[in-house]
UniProtKB/TrEMBL annotation:
Gene name in the database record: pdxA
GO molecular function: 4-hydroxythreonine-4-phosphate dehydrogenase activity
Catalytic activity, EC: 1.1.1.262
Naturally occurring in which organism (per UniProt): Limnobacter parvus
Subunit structure comment from the entry: Homodimer.
Protein name, UniProt field: 4-hydroxythreonine-4-phosphate dehydrogenase
Function: Catalyzes the NAD(P)-dependent oxidation of 4-(phosphooxy)-L-threonine (HTP) into 2-amino-3-oxo-4-(phosphooxy)butyric acid which spontaneously decarboxylates to form 3-amino-2-oxopropyl phosphate (AHAP).
């Protein structure tokens, strides 16, 4: 067995009624851990994970680990897959999320995040959660990105998806469309772009990242005829960053920006709202894309899809996004440690 030299990556199994348990079991059927030369620790109800794997005909190779204490994690010298047991609150019915298990799902996130903050783990990768099952326990729960920002006491985070040779970040995330314009300010855009510039340099080793910025309105406002956000908010931020020596360009009409002739000479795109940028990326890479949280003090990646309740309990699913999320987290961790 190859000797491990990398700290573990933690994988939260997500909504227990969804496909997270099967995805984790499918992962532990692969040789990814040995190829990347590090241990992976899957967090969840171990009895549920083992049972769901057996019912789906999946044969994972994993071992139990009783603690995430540094003394335990540093002894995981063999690359492979490990299970850290955290019990469900109530019995889970496959395909039927139960709000009674909401605190269980959030506890998995808290535990993984705290281990990363403590330096015990290198990164956390998250399987999908069911927002509707968590909201009764945590009113206003919007998703992993916002929750982890709250847990890390980080006011500014950026959601970026990576896939199809694209990186698309969002100026706003999970808010109603009618609130987008008011949420985009010069201050918020400046912070978002500064986070992107910093983390693209750290995690992708880009000396001078080039970021293309979309407009908010059709045709990027048509010189003010279709909206003035580009003139009043977006352009001044871009010009200020350019004056500081950063390669930030735009605003560009979103309906024409996502073409190879523009993207091939850039490192990332900043879109103004969720459904402006992500449909293009997901069309190019769905099932292979990765959700990355920028601006956190830890490395966190996730799958690009939801809980797929109808597929839970089967192995009729594609674990490609989870595998890509792990590859991305591994890459980001190595880049960060190489800079230290």
């Amino acid at each position: 067995m190859q000797s491990n030299t990398n700290p573990p990556i933690l994988i939260t199994s997500g909504e227990p009624a969804g496909i997270g348990p099967e995805l984790c079991a499918l992962l532990a059927e692969t040789s990814q851990a040995r190829r990347l030369n590090r241990p992976f620790i899957i967090l969840g109800d171990a009895d549920l994970l083992v049972k769901r794997a057996a019912n789906a005909g999946i044969e994972p190779e994993w071992q139990r680990v009783d603690s995430l204490d540094p003394a335990v994690c540093t002894l995981l010298k063999d690359p492979g897959y490990y299970l850290f047991h955290h019990p469900l609150n109530v019995t889970c019915t496959t395909g039927q999320p139960d709000p009674a298990n909401a605190s269980y799902v959030l506890k998995l996130l808290d535990t993984a995040c705290d281990a990363c903050l403590a330096g015990t783990a290198a990164a956390m990768v998250t399987a999908p959660v069911q927002k509707s099952a968590i909201s009764p326990h945590w009113p206003g729960f919007a998703g992993h990105t916002e929750y982890l920002a709250h847990h890390c006491k980080q006011s500014d985070v950026v959601m970026m998806l990576v896939g199809g040779q694209m990186k698309v970040a969002l100026a706003t995330t999970h808010i109603p469309l009618r609130e987008v314009s008011q949420a985009i300010t010069q201050e918020s855009l400046t912070r978002t772009l500064q986070i992107m510039l910093k983390d693209l340099a750290i995690y992708w080793k880009l000396d001078k990242p080039k970021i293309l910025v979309t407009g908010l309105n059709p045709h990027a406002g048509e010189s003010g005829d279709l909206g003035t956000e580009e003139i009043d908010t977006i352009s001044p931020v871009i010009q200020a960053l350019q004056a500081q020596g950063h390669d930030v360009q735009g605003p560009y009409p979103a309906d024409t920006l996502f073409q190879p002739k523009y993207l091939q000479n850039s490192d990332a795109v900043l879109a103004m709202f969720h459904d402006q940028g992500l449909p293009v990326l997901k069309h190019a890479s769905f099932g292979q894309g990765v959700n990355v949280s920028l601006g956190l003090p830890i490395v966190r990646t996730s799958v690009d899809h939801g809980t797929a309740l109808a597929l839970a309990g089967t192995r009729d699913m594609d674990a490609g996004s989870l595998n890509e999320a792990i590859e991305c987290a591994h890459h980001m961790d190595l880049c960060r440690r190489n800079m230290q």
